[in-house]
Design brief:
single chain, 63 residues, mainly alpha, 3 helices, 83% helix, 0% strand, Zf-HC2 domain-containing protein, Znf_put
């Protein structure tokens, strides 16, 4: 079973690279039973979305 430290690392990596099938399955199994890791993953996705929106806004302001 994947530990929380491994799961949070994988959730972070998921934003930067495609996960292997094995990684996806292990992560899905862990987050299905671990609400703190599930919440961490949601927060990472939110931060990425906000960062991308901010970058787009800054780029359009500079033009």
């Amino acid at each position: 079973m994947m530990k929380c430290k491994q799961a949070t690392q994988m959730l972070s990596e998921k934003l930067d690279r495609p996960l292997s099938t094995k990684e996806k399955i292990n992560l899905a199994m862990h987050t299905a039973i671990c609400s703190p890791c599930r919440q961490f993953g949601q927060q990472m996705e939110t931060l990425r979305t906000l960062s991308q929106a901010y970058t787009k806004t800054k780029e359009s302001d500079e033009k």
